[in-house]
């Protein structure tokens, strides 16, 4: 495609295209025409090429993750820059980019801190669904439509802030690398950056979905000797073992709590445990499954709105560490393109996480695959 010409034709104009609108929770989204405004200063309009469907999109659709409605969901996208707003300097029309829900403004306290990655410009913890100027770029049937965590990838075109757009290798296959916008760095970074898994260690991964599978890849890359995978869906076990899980457990097959089973299997508890489901019960089980002294438990799952985690504080007094992480603690625009480079060099592989591909218009089928546990990651192609 002649990208420069393509951009000239549409730059500065409203684009009418198809998007999946979630009008309410707990109902299928409807694919319909939307108007996408041109990008304002500091913004980028992107032609979406692919998007994964993540557990967090499903949490938003089932109402456990509260977001303003109507909304265009999706936050695991890859695409091509169509046009840019005033002052945008890090990308230009035709660039291949990832659409990442954690921005990196490079100016705030978190971005300037050596370890911080939770940019203060994020719209994740109490989403308002609007651009930083308080307005929306999407209209459907005359109604304003909200964005989702600054990304909105379930649309043929979206508008994002430059600070959330990461330029990647021009040779990267856009129909595959969308997983680098969420699932892969979230899980892989939780193992490598947050837990800092050590060679020869024992790890436990609660939840063997898309993100949990990426945790497994990270534990394996760090040299873990034993990786115990826990899931209610035994259909996930064969693939998990192929990725590096050494023992698979279904909590329903035991009369005692799963943390007790892990304690007995390991003798002393695991070195590192990861919660990648998003329930309070499994968070407590993950904490109680790690060694009471040197064990590290990392929370990655998104718990239902307003829920509270409660456990006996003595679990920490003994020296355990409880941590959480957002997008694997990567400084997103700086580090995630480097992960794509490693993928291009075949140093890391995300392809085994992709079990299904569907045309965008079959998005509701994709959600059904996720909910039924039949897929690890389903990628929508536009
Ligand atoms: N015990 C064990 N496994 C469970 C339980 C449970 N109580 N409940 C669900 N699971 C399993 C599911 O069978 C599924 O395999 O957890 C897995 C969750 O995976 P996905 O639905 O594919 O979700 P994923 O995209 O991996 O996200 C997992 O991380 O980023 C967050 O918001 C996301 O909270 C979500 C979590
Ligand atoms: Zn996600
Ligand atoms: Zn910042």
What does this structure look like?
This protein has helices spanning 3-10, 55-61, 109-112, 183-195, 210-221, 237-243, 258-266, 280-289, 314-317, 332-344, 363-371, and strands spanning 15-21, 30-36, 43-52, 77-84, 96-99, 138-140, 143-145, 157-161, 165-167, 202-206, 226-230, 247-249, 272-275, 296-299, 321-324, 354-359, 377-381. The chain contains eleven helices and 17 strands. The chain has two domains: 3-176 and 354-381, Medium-chain alcohol dehydrogenases, catalytic domain (Quinone Oxidoreductase, Chain A, domain 1); 187-325, Rossmann fold (3-Layer(aba) Sandwich), CATH 3.40.50. It starts with a helix and ends with a strand. It has 382 residues and is α/β, with parallel strands linked by helices. Adenosine-5-diphosphoribose binds at residues 54-56, 59, 186, 206-212, 230-233, 236, 251, 276-279, 282, 300-302, 370, 373. Residues 54-56, 59, 186, 206-212, 230-233, 236, 251, 276-279, 282, 300-302, 370, 373 line the site of adenosine-5-diphosphoribose.
Radius of gyration: 20 Å
The fold-level CATH name of the largest domain is Quinone Oxidoreductase, Chain A, domain 1
The helix/strand series, from N terminus to C terminus, equals HEEEHEEHEEEEHEHEHEHEHEHEHEHE
What overall form do the CA principal axes indicate? globular
Structural class: alpha/beta
* Low-pLDDT segments, ≥5 res: 1-5
Chemical compounds bound to the protein:
adenosine-5-diphosphoribose, zinc ion
Biggest beta sheet attributes: 7 strands, mixed
Q: Let me know the CATH homologous superfamily of the largest domain.
A: Medium-chain alcohol dehydrogenases, catalytic domain
| CATH class type of the largest domain | Alpha Beta
Summed up, the helix count is: 11
Fraction of residues in H or I helices: 25-40%
pLDDT averaged over residues: 96
